[in-house]
Amino acid sequence: MTERLAACRGLSVVHGTGDAAVRALDDVDLAIERHDSLALAGRSGSGKTTLLHVLGGLVEPRAGTVEWHGRPHGIAYVFQGANLLPTFTAFENVAFAAHVARADATPPLELLALVGLEDKADHLPGELSGGEAQRVAIARALAQQPDLLLCDEPTAHLDSDTAERVLDLIEALQSELRFALVVATHDPGVATRLRRSLELHDGRLVAEQAVA
């Protein structure tokens, strides 16, 4: 039996005012189960990132609610770019996130080991490849011990081989650590890797399918 993590009801978000107003989300309902694996699919401008931002508390909806169930939730992000602190080493980037997380946070070196980068702990972001930097960003997100990991086009700036390895890693960690995973993507190949796929068009949820 599945356990509900969150439910979105009637979400609407409008950017701008008057004639320049754009409805980024339009009456969206969405349920996320604990340990879910969900793709938000659609073209650029369809509302995927806005929905992620509402789920993460970065954007306040014009209408509608996000209701959380069970114990207090933790949310972490992986963005299109790694967005690492450039003067911090890989270890320090992860340690900074662990410092502001829950008291029982996993030690940074263990998190880097999870993503296969314990040997790059003392490297600055400029000394890492794109794939390595994104793996550090994943370790940094895991330092927050999330119940929900939100990924916004996490492989958009990577070549196809590196992107596959990053997606393999995210899926393996999700299976092992049992957080809920929501990935926004315009790539159908990414969407089909997750258990469920929701398609957005002009801010509206137009289709849902079970993938696996």
Task: Pick out its properties.
3-stranded antiparallel sheet, Rossmann fold, 212 residues, 6 helices, alpha/beta
Secondary-structure-based class equals alpha/beta
Quick one: CATH class?
A: Alpha Beta
Element pattern in H and E: EEEHEEHHHEHEHEE
Total count of domains? 1
Give the fraction of residues assigned to helices.
25-40%
Name the strands of the widest sheet in spatial order: 5-6-7-3-8-9
Q: Going by CATH, what is the homologous superfamily?
A: P-loop containing nucleotide triphosphate hydrolases
Largest sheet: 6 strands, mixed
Low-confidence stretches: none
From the alpha carbons, calculate the radius of gyration and give it in angstroms: 17 Å
Number of helices: 6
Mean pLDDT: 91
- Tell me the CATH architecture: 3-Layer(aba) Sandwich
Kindly state the number of beta strands.
Answer: 9
**Beta-strand percentage range:** 25-35%
Textual characterization of the structure:
- The chain has 212 residues and is of the alpha/beta class.
- The mean pLDDT is 91.
- The protein has a six-stranded mixed sheet, with helices on both faces. Strands 2-1-4 form a three-stranded antiparallel sheet, covered by helices on one side.
- Helix content is 28%, strand content 30%.
- The protein contains six helices and nine strands, in the order E-E-E-H-E-E-H-H-H-E-H-E-H-E-E.
- The protein has one domain (4-210): Rossmann fold (3-Layer(aba) Sandwich), CATH 3.40.50.300.
